[in-house]
Structures are given as structure tokens and as C-alpha cells.
Amino acid sequence: MARDPLHDGHGRRISDLRVSVTDRCNFRCQYCMPAEGLPWLERAEVLSFEETERLVRVMAEMGVETLRLTGGEPLVRRDFPTLAGLLTRIPGLDEVSITTNGFLLERDAAALVAAGIDRFNVSVDSLQRDRFYEQTRRDALPRVLAGLEHLASFPEAHPIKVNAVAIRGFTEQEALPFARFAREHPYEVRFIEYMPLDGDRSWKPDQVLSGAEIHAAIHAVYPLEDAVRDPHATARVHRFADGKGKIGFINPVSEPFCDDCNRLRLTADGRLRTCLFSLNETDLRGPLRAGATDDDLEALIRGAVWAKELKHRVNDPGFVQPARTMSAIGG
Ligand code: SF4
User: Fold this and answer.
1) Mean pLDDT value of segment 171-178
2) C-alpha 147 – ligand 1 centre gap (Å)
3) Which residue's CA lies nearest to atom 4 of ligand 1?
4) Three-state SS letters, the chain
5) Residue-level pLDDT at 331
6) 140 lines ligand 1 (CB under 6 A)
């Protein structure tokens, strides 16, 4: 059943949904969570497959066309490929992608491709084993790279994006290795500026290594053509001038892209977030479990979206970091 498209109070049409299917993760990335992890949601707090499917279906009826499945780490959710298969069958969704740390890709790539996932974002912050360990607190680089290679063997799985979080004092040494990686492999590497959503709440503006700085370092060695960015995409993507691959920059701090934001987020415990940095959330799980109809859910979602934030305030004095961390939002 088609419903009126979703618009926010600033006239932006909302067509992209990111769903965190779990807050749990098998990594402990320094910029995301403490070494000991975080208090996980209880099983009963997490939306079931059917509840997730229903909420996504209602939002697809309101014009959501692209869906990204995230975590924590989505592949640690039991039977995740089954959930993916349920969601890729929802009418109206043009694209269903996942963001993963790649550790379980060797195990799950075939099932995910069979479930209809047609785009993969794999988070890799360093191509050097010891530095990868330093950042993720897991000695897992060889396994992640093997998972990537296995995934790349499926023609349906392309494009494959490799995302590296850019942090001053760490990523400078990764820029050229990643440029070579993008030139030598069928992956599109993107650098994402470090954002204030960390579990330790220790983010500082001077820790942000901007996309422009990394671009300059790479361009000096491997010349890059001018960027292409489609309105709703978050990345500025540059082709290497000699045609050997592409590299991208996602600069939410130094070059915010909120003007044409079309994104909504649903947390694993059924909260609707209208912005990555929202300080407020709308509970959908409670009404859903209390017997709300699809029309009731539509009204709740439409009300929340109408009040969607115009932009983030990360660069503003007095910025307040959300209580919920990246691992429980899912990027
Ligand atoms: S920070 Fe918020 S408003 Fe800006 S692009 Fe991200 S989700 Fe959209």
C-alpha cells in the first residue's frame, strides 16, 4: 500500500533508512567503544525480525527507497542473513546494503548475496596488522582481508566500499597505503572524518583529520580528478587521474552535507533517530508491541520526521554529544 512520501519540516524528502540490527560487536575500536565493551541490550529489548520487517515496510510505503543494515556489527546477530532476506523482499526498496567490519564475511558472504544484499561497506582503518590491532583491539586484519577477497568473488556484491575512519595522529600513515589499495583492488576506499559519537566521550575537534588534508597527501603522489558527489550521497568520490580506481572522502565535520540529508535511523531497540546527532528519539517498539496499527506507526514516524533537525551542531559552541554512542546507532 503506497502512502504519501515522507518530508521533514525543511522540505527535504526522506528516502534513506539505516537500521541497526544489534548494538553488539566483536571488535573494540578505540574511537567507538571502551575495551570492556558497553552494557548490551537485553534480547527482549531488541526488535524481532518480524517487528523490524514491519517497521521497514511501513517506511518503504512512505517512500524509503534505500536501506542500510548496520550494528554494532550486524553479522554477529544470529541468523542475520535470514533477516536480510526478509527485508530485501520489501516492495519499494531499490537497494539494501550493509556496513560490516568484515570479520565474518568469509562465513556469511554467500548467504548475504543470496539474500539479495547488493552493496557492501566494509570498515578497515589500517592495512598494517599491528596498527589494525592497535585501533580495533583485535588481531583480525588477515581474516578481514580474506573476507573482502571472498566477497569480491561474487559479481553481485559490487560495488564494495572500504571505509576508514580518519583520526589525526593515526591515519596520516594510512593515506598512501589505502590509495595503493584502491588502485590495486576492485574496492572504493573512503575516508570518514572522526565524529563525536565515541563510547569514551573523549572526542576533540583537533583529532579530526580532514578529508581535504588526506586528499592533498594522496593527490601529491597519485593525482586525483575533481570530485563527483550526487546530492544524497555522503562521499565526495575522486577518480585517479590515470584511471586506476577511485577514492572518496566523507567529511561530516569539515564539510557538513546536512542541506540535502534524506536519512533516518532505526535503532536495534526500536527508536527512531532523525539525525545521527539527535538528542531526542521516538519510541516505535512500545506502540508496536502495544498493538499500534500501521496507520498509527505512520503517524508517529511522520510526526518525528517533521521535526527532523536541520543540521548537526558539531562545530557549534555548546555542542552536546548524544547519549547514544555510534555502536548503538550504527552510522
Ligand atoms: S548530521 Fe544529521 S542532518 Fe546532517 S547529514 Fe547527518 S543525519 Fe543528516
Assistant:
1) 98
2) 31
3) 258
4) CCCCCCECCCCCECCEEEEECCCCCCCCCCCCCCCCCCCCCCHHHCCCHHHHHHHHHHHHHCCCCEEEEECCCHHHCCCHHHHHHHHHCCCCCCEEEEEECCCCHHHHHHHHHHHCCCEEEEECCCCCHHHHHHHHCCCCHHHHHHHHHHHHCCHHHCCEEEEEEEECCCHHHCHHHHHHHHHHCCEEEEEEECCCCCCCCCCCHHHECCHHHHHHHHHCCCCECCCECCCCCCEEEEEECCCCCEEEEECCCCCCCHHHCCEEEECCCCEEECCCCCCCCEECHHHHHCCCCHHHHHHHHHHHHHCCCCCCCCCCCCCCCCCCCHHHCCC
5) 76
6) no
